[in-house]
Amino acid sequence: MKSVTTFKTRGQETLDRLAEAGKQQPAQVQTFSATAAGAVIGGIILAAGAQGVLAVVALLAAPPVALTIGALGGGAVAWSYMQRHRQEDATNSPTTGPLAMAEADIANEQVGPADMLDQQTASDLAA
After folding, report:
1. 69: which residues sit within 8 A by CB, 6+ positions away?
2. Which of 37-41, 54-58, 85-89 has the lowest mean pLDDT?
3. How far is CA 59 from CA 17, 54, 110, 117, 126, in A?
4. More confident residue, 87 or 113
5. Higher model confidence: residue 39 or residue 122?
6. DSSP secondary structure string, the chain?
7. How many angstroms separate the CA atoms of 22 and 36, rounded?
8. Is the pTM of this model over 0.85?
């Protein structure tokens, strides 16, 4: 236990000495030192984060996991497509769709062959 305390004390003394030496440096050197330290710390954090992301991506790339997630995603997309398609079919059903309405209009007008021809052709047919 004494060695751990000694190690902590030496580390703290080293940090205190570095902080004092840094305070004695010109402002421009302090600025660049803080920037460099921030860059190093940021690089370490980014590297650790990237390894975490790579671990997640590697897990997703494993065939059983990829197939399961792909199947669930594909099933969800197909389900939503079919539900949307069913709703469109319901609005265009044989009793209410545009084709049924056009057929009803034709049936109500009772269009015959004479109505489709001009008067001259109709008189020729009648004679």
Report:
1. 60
2. 85-89
3. 45, 8, 69, 74, 84
4. 87
5. 39
6. -HHHHHHHHHHHHHHHHHHHHHHTS-HHHHHHHHHHHHHHHHHHHHHHHHHHHHHHHHHHHSHHHHHHHHHHHHHHHHHHHHHHHHHHHHHT-TTTSHHHHHHHHHHHHT--HHHHS-HHHHHHHH-
7. 13
8. no
